[in-house]
Specification:
By secondary structure, this protein is an alpha/beta fold. The chain has eleven helices and 19 strands. The protein has helices spanning 35-41, 61-67, 85-97, 117-133, 181-190, 204-214, 216-226, 234-241, 250-253, 278-285, 344-350; strands spanning 2-6, 28-30, 33-34, 52-57, 76-79, 105-109, 112-114, 138-143, 153-164, 167-176, 193-202, 263-268, 272-274, 293-295, 298-301, 307-310, 317-320, 325-329, 334-338. The strands form five sheets. It has a five-stranded mixed β-barrel. Strands 14-16-18-19 form a four-stranded mixed beta sheet, covered by helices on one side. Strands 2-3 form a two-stranded antiparallel sheet. Strand 4, helix 2 (61-67) and strand 5 (76-79) form a beta-alpha-beta unit.
């Protein structure tokens, strides 16, 4: 049983902490640990360090090695440039498949928080057990939706097909990548839709067969790269060829084209959150919405439903009569905004390119 954690994103919505040179998954947001470190910890002791792979960008090589010293260097799979998820998964799975294409593999992401870790581990074990019955499939680990989240995909599931390890395995009906808010609310009302966490239990062979049939351009390009893996010219070949395919999500390239019989769905509550934005971090850490979430030297008076993170020990943040606010203070930037305005952060930061503010992106 292998696991691969993808850690190549940039995390613009967690700016100004998350920057191009040090994205959100490497920042120590929770208990002085990064979400990448927490993602690895969740797999222990069921996985050995040598069974855990990390997919990331060459630009983050030193950060990865510093934060994960126990994972063998050969288990780091580097992209030479940022593409969308589909090319990254194709590259990593192709490399892992060279050893054992039929060994179960769990696909995970580095920027999430999972509070119900025991349930998470049991779900993975159940998925692997089910895969032994038929390795030619993918098993979605989906989550019962808490609200109309528009930053995730939604899986429509059907009847119970099997039960293993205390969990129901539902039939797979369809998947919708990031619906608008109105559609997301409709999905929740229908009751047979779940969040697609991007967590899967499958085999490398199934994934590669799917690419060959459904995304042949990516498959052929990746194949031409990986045949040089382990040779002296591999990195040169990777740099030359990796960027030749279009950027496309894994959902759009593969998942939306799957046949119903090729997948099963586990739908559970593992208290999962995508720490992709400051408001998402607050939602993940709060017990009640009115709670304030603070870090560093912060004093909030007569305030509620706000987050204040201070990364400068030489300054004190004081907030009075705040409601629904996000305050983030780093060494060079102070962000102050309403929670309802945080969707504008990504657009703001992307606008820094080729301006006098580019150094802050």
């Amino acid at each position: 049983m292998k696991a691969i954690i993808f850690a190549g994103g940039t995390g613009t919505r967690l700016w100004p902490l998350s920057r191009k040179k040090s994205p959100k998954q490497f920042e120590k947001l929770i208990n002085n640990k990064s979400t990448l470190q927490l993602a690895v910890e969740r797999l222990l002791p069921d996985f050995k360090y040598e069974d855990i792979y990390i997919s990331t960008n060459y630009a983050y090589k030193e950060i990865i090695e510093e934060q994960l010293p126990k994972i063998p260097e050969k288990n780091f799979i580097f992209e030479p440039e940022k593409k969308d998820v589909a090319p990254a998964i194709a590259l990593s799975i192709s490399i892992i498949a060279k050893k054992n294409p039929l060994e179960p593999i769990v696909i995970l992401w580095s920027d999430h928080l999972v509070k119900k870790v025991d349930a998470f581990r049991k779900i993975i074990k159940a998925g692997v057990s089910e895969l032994k019955n038929d390795p030619n499939k993918i098993i979605f680990i989906a989550h019962k939706p808490r609200f109309a989240n528009t930053n995730v995909g939604y899986i429509k599931y059907g009847k119970i097909k099997n039960r293993m390890g205390g969990f129901n395995f539902y039939s797979f009906e369809s998947i919708k990548y990031r619906p608008d808010r109105k559609t997301a609310k409709e999905f929740i009302k229908l009751g047979n839709y779940a969040w697609n966490l991007g967590y899967f239990v499958t085999t490398p062979r199934f994934i590669l067969d799917s690419y060959e049939k459904l995304a042949p351009e990516i498959f052929k390009n990746t194949e031409s790269i990986v045949k040089e893996y382990g040779k002296s010219n591999y990195k040169k070949t990777l740099i030359e060829r990796y960027g030749k395919v279009k950027s496309i999500s894994f959902d759009n390239a593969i998942l939306e084209k799957l046949k119903k019989e090729q997948a099963l769905v586990i739908v559970e509550d593992i208290d999962w959150s995508d720490i992709g934005s400051w408001e998402a971090l607050k939602e993940a850490l709060q017990k009640e919405q009115k709670d304030n979430i603070i870090k560093g030297q912060v004093i909030l008076k007569q305030s509620k439903d706000s987050l204040a993170y201070n990364y400068d020990d030489k300054k004190l943040i004081v907030g009075i009569d705040l409601k629904d606010h996000i305050i983030v203070n780093t060494k060079d930037v102070i962000l102050i905004a309403k929670k309802t305005s945080m969707s504008k952060v990504k657009e703001l930061v992307e606008g820094f390119d080729k301006t006098e503010h580019e150094k802050y992106s």
